[in-house]
Amino acid sequence: MAYSEKLIDHYENPRNVGSMDKNETSVGTGLVGAPACGDVMKLQIKVTPEGIIEDAKFKTFGCGSAIASSSLITEWVKGKSLDEAGSIKNSQIAAELALPPVKIHCSILAEDAIKAAISDYKTKNGQGEVEAAE
Amino acid sequence: MNELKAKPIYLDYQATTPTDPRVVDAMLPYFTEKFGNPHSRNHSYGWEAEDAVEVARDQVAKIIGASSKEIIFTSGATESNNLALKGVMKFYGKKKPHLITVVTEHKCVLDSARHLEQEGYKVTYLGVKENGLIDLDQLKAAITDETAIVSVMGVNNEIGVIQPIKAIGEICRERGVFFHTDCAQAVGKIPLDVDDMKIDLMSISAHKLYGPKGVGALYVRRRPRVRVIAQITGGGQERGMRSGTLPTPLLVGFGKACEIAQNEMAEENARLTELRDYTLKRFRDRLDDVFLNGDEEQRVSGNLNISFAYVEGESLQMGIKNIAVSSGSACTSASLEPSYVLRALGVDEELAHTSLRIGIGRFTTKEELDEAIDAISTEVERLREMSPLWEMAQEGIDIKSIEWAEH
């Protein structure tokens, strides 16, 4: 498959690979996808008391598009408020990386991952309103 | 992606093989000065081409222990498989409307079977054991008075396992059922003898054994006679079973390729087996959680199908651009389904997504393999560092215990 330069760059030099302590209250963790489907994303955010995402980390099992989508979204959410990060759409990721149609689900997974991480953070910090996220 | 670097190391010999230069040399005169139509009976151009075709027919027959009169030339194994299954069922199907095949067969066999099913014929798809081989008792139980033909491939294209062809042939002969075997991946790789193995029809492909693409053959037994209804009609060439002008240069190449393969098989197999075992050992020495798919013993010398757990196959391939291999991962296919062959073995879906097929052959060197092993291992290590599943495995979490939301 022919991929865009941006996608290949994120695959070859992924940003923010790693893990944070999921038990810390300032950390929200999203784990989405399924091994049987060929992709699993773990996305973590570290949130300041003011509600700003100061750091993000990911680990992904999946194809090059899945790795690139998760790498890209960790870059995008840093410095954003939870609401801003939660409003990122998969279509923006797909457009930025020029994902081929059969790989659109990778960008959807990345969107699900950030929503799941935000939801996890909010639940931990008693901000109740669990939205979306699987 | 577009910049052209040094040519990648070719490790995909089950997909196709380069045409052997000796084969090309044999073919060349038949494009230019010896260009006659082998069916032209009135002049020396035709006779010359016909002679060449008959030499090729002998060479192809010889490698499977057949008589040259039993070789029907086709465009390749896909056509041969179509002709064998559809041709036999359409001739014998009124009385015997049942066909038996196996779930791990090549798509062209399975698709022919599916088309026959749509036309009202009955098909039984045998499963395989964990090692990729069929259960002979299951085969015996599946044969009925209505069974016309059993079709089981000699060597699987994905996992390289060798089916017990001789035993299958004996069962079929005893029960009065024709035995067809797709030997596209077997001819030239393992010794074959249609009489000893009681094979009634066999599909052969030239480009899998260092011959040219676009040509193959169907062996059709004459005693006891097997009848097939032609799928391509016209001038009645190939004893009426396959019309169309024979492609003389391709046939000359096909014949030469068979001759070379037959002469060099024993020596070549010893060399490839050593390289294959060396490769597997080096992977296992360096990496944990490396699984060989398909039987380790009943396997052709040129095939390794390996799952590198916790690393998805397509992402692995992206990281080893300098190595041409195949993956059983879903992401390399348009369907997004992982390999149906690996699934049939009962390989976990997640492991099916992590498989790589490494095919070695006549022109593979140990140096190339060393380079490939290093590159693949390095990439597996890099991607595992990035894999949440690897992380969980290291923490002792069973990934099967997690409730995944399948999407």
TrEMBL record, chain A:
GO biological process, one term: iron-sulfur cluster assembly
Ranges of residues in domain NIF system FeS cluster assembly NifU N-terminal: 2-126
Gene Ontology molecular function: any one: iron-sulfur cluster binding
GO annotation, cellular component aspect: cytoplasm
Function: A scaffold on which IscS assembles Fe-S clusters. It is likely that Fe-S cluster coordination is flexible as the role of this complex is to build and then hand off Fe-S clusters.
PANTHER family assigned: IRON-SULFUR CLUSTER ASSEMBLY ENZYME NIFU HOMOLOG
Protein known as: Iron-sulfur cluster assembly scaffold protein IscU
Species name: Thalassospira alkalitolerans
TrEMBL record, chain B:
Source organism, top-level taxon: Bacteria
Keywords for the protein's UniProt record, in alphabetical order: 2Fe-2S, Cytoplasm, Iron, Iron-sulfur, Metal-binding, Pyridoxal phosphate, Transferase
Positions where N6-(pyridoxal phosphate)lysine occurs in the chain: 208
One annotated GO molecular function: metal ion binding
Keyword Plastid part of the UniProt annotation: no
Pfam families on file: Aminotran_5
Pathway: Cofactor biosynthesis; iron-sulfur cluster biosynthesis
Reactions catalysed, as given in the entry: (sulfur carrier)-H + L-cysteine = (sulfur carrier)-SH + L-alanine
Role played: Catalyzes the removal of elemental sulfur atoms from cysteine to produce alanine. Seems to participate in the biosynthesis of the nitrogenase metalloclusters by providing the inorganic sulfur required for the Fe-S core formation.
Protein family according to the UniProt entry: Belongs to the class-V pyridoxal-phosphate-dependent aminotransferase family. NifS/IscS subfamily.
Name of the molecule in the record: Cysteine desulfurase IscS
